[in-house]
Amino acid sequence: MIRHDRRRLLRGLVHGSLAGLPLAQLLVRSAHAQTAAASPARMLFVYIPDGCSPEHWHPSGSTTGFTLPEMTQPLAAHRNDLVFLRGLNMYAGGSTHEGGIRKVLTATNDVSLDVFVGQYYREQSAHASIHLGIASTHENGAGYVSYLGSEQPIVPEDNPLRAFERLFGAPGSPSDPEARRQLSVLDAAQADLGRLQSRLGQTERDKLDRHTESLRALENRILAADPGSGGVCGNPDWNSQGWSVPAGYNSYPAYWNRDDQFDSMARLQMDLAVLALQCGLSRSITLQFSHAVSPTSLPQIGTSQRHHDSSHFDANSAASVQTFVTWKRWYCEQFAYLLQSMKNAPGSQGSLLDETLVLLCSELGHSARHDHRDMPFVLAGRGGGLQPGRFLDYRTANGGDGDTHAKLLVSLGNAAGIPIDRFGYTGHGTGPLSGLFM
Question: Which residues form the signal peptide (predicted)?
């Protein structure tokens, strides 16, 4: 996790600044952050390992009249929350698993998009970005999806108890409502704001009103996220099953990285990601399931073959393909659970899913070929103005070569409210992905 201390953040509010940024600068930054999207999206990046079988993953049919094949069929109940993308390729950079995981969120940029978004909004939440893992560190020789800089990977937190403590375990803000009200930068600067409004024209006054409303919502989320403030963020209903590490456990692998805990870790970390987004702890959260060349084994899903082994399927053997289909269906079931949890979580207007943009990604296209073509990208939510319920096929772009996933990352950055026209690779042009946001 890349974090900011909540106490320091709240002290900043007391003294009329947010993480050391003066109010006037904060308002300017807030205005700049909203130029590219009327309602900048919160971002959730979800990685699953080892690519797919394209014919069993990608939909068929028209933009809105599409059907889902076996691998993605568990997402059918959420088809109106999703945008399926086909024909996007990852160019340049390294090859196979290691090159793919390095560039799926970077497009050969030094910094990954999840970190870039988090750093852009770093003064506006307790944590710039949050990085959670499910056995992402276990036997990982292939790398991670998040990068703070060139060759500076961010290792996710695989232990959900430790992650929860880092997010919610700090002492809370004052429980007395009047004491908490005094933490408000807006209340402290009310006179200055009044004088500023009197000098502005109506258009600029309306903009200032919108920005101060956004800051008020931010303050309320920060205060609500402290245990002393009560509510869902002050008293998180998390880990209701009481998962814990057995007393005296000191074996390899770490208890939370064991295969027999993978199911439980997935649910706990997904629930924690939803809670952190709902409480405004960060605008950018990454959830990494396992890692490239995944060694995970889950006999309970109906196969004894490890995930990476199953990804080397024989397209001419129905049984071999079905094993990999079984694995990918399981991952889509987890994604469906995550989406439903976000739909059930209230946002400021509508559900959390309405305000968030979720990217589901992997490091390979066709798993058995180890290529980076026709990547299995899926978007979810309505954050940033995304219109879900569509299947977009880019295979005919660039004379039939397909389009670059770097443009997808540009589009996601724009949806997060960041006015960029390039992110990493530019060999197939710049700007956002056509037709994604209308």
Answer: 1-33
